[in-house]
């Protein structure tokens, strides 16, 4: 796997959009392997009721592990290779990777947030792999990335449609971001490289 462009982009701008991370066939296999019957409403933290939670994010999630089948195991393997490459070149000290499948029903969104709020800064790099074939302008569901230079401002530096096979990676601590309301069911796999191993 060629990671030069990723390393360059993370170093200079702090994020990278990998347009053809998976082929359409690989996306189809991965979707097929997700045990959808186990999807649950996403929770933010113990202080939020599910009701309050829904005003912040409306997706369903399912934590993944490599035993869920070959396509998911292959995804973990690719993410492991990237982890090694990031550690060898950027010395990020990444120790582990956690990842969940997300489904946003039509109308769902995820308000502006940072990925590190309750994780004591263990999340260093966020990855989001999109699984939506034939996404059209007007379908909504764009990922907005806000400026890290002006985190208190509303300056959007990237508006990314969730197109099948593309993946964005960004430094988790640096970028506030949000998911705009989607007009169609929107599926993705979010992951985080962590600096410490879970006990
Ligand atoms: C998240 C998130 C962005 C996306 O799951 O924390 O911000 O584009 N996802 O799905
Ligand atoms: Mn996020």
TrEMBL record:
It comes from Ignatzschineria indica. One of its GO terms (biological process) is cellular response to hypoxia. Keywords: Dioxygenase, Iron, Metal-binding, Oxidoreductase, Vitamin C. One of its GO terms (molecular function) is ferrous iron binding. Residues 90-195 form the Fe2OG dioxygenase domain. Its cofactor is L-ascorbate. Pfam families: 2OG-FeII_Oxy_3. This is SM-20 protein. Signal peptide: none annotated.
């Amino acid at each position: 796997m060629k990671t030069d462009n990723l390393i360059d982009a993370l170093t200079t701008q702090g994020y990278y959009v990998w347009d053809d991370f998976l082929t359409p066939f690989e996306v189809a296999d991965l979707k097929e392997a997700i045990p959808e019957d186990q999807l649950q409403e996403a929770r933010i933290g113990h202080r939020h009721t599910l009701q309050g939670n829904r005003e912040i994010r409306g997706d369903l999630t399912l934590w993944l592990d490599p035993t869920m089948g070959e396509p998911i195991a292959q995804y973990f393997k690719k993410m492991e290779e990237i982890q090694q490459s990031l550690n060898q070149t950027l010395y990020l000290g990444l120790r582990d990777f956690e990842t969940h499948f997300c489904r946003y029903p039509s109308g769902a969104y995820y308000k502006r947030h940072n990925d590190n709020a309750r994780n004591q800064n263990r999340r260093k790099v966020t990855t989001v792999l999109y699984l939506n074939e034939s996404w059209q302008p007007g379908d909504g569901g764009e990922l907005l990335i806000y400026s890290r230079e002006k985190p208190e401002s509303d300056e959007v530096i990237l508006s990314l449609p969730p197109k099948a096979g593309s993946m964005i990676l960004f430094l988790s601590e640096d970028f506030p971001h949000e998911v705009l309301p989607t007009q169609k069911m929107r599926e993705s796999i979010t992951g985080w490289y962590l600096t410490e191993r879970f006990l």
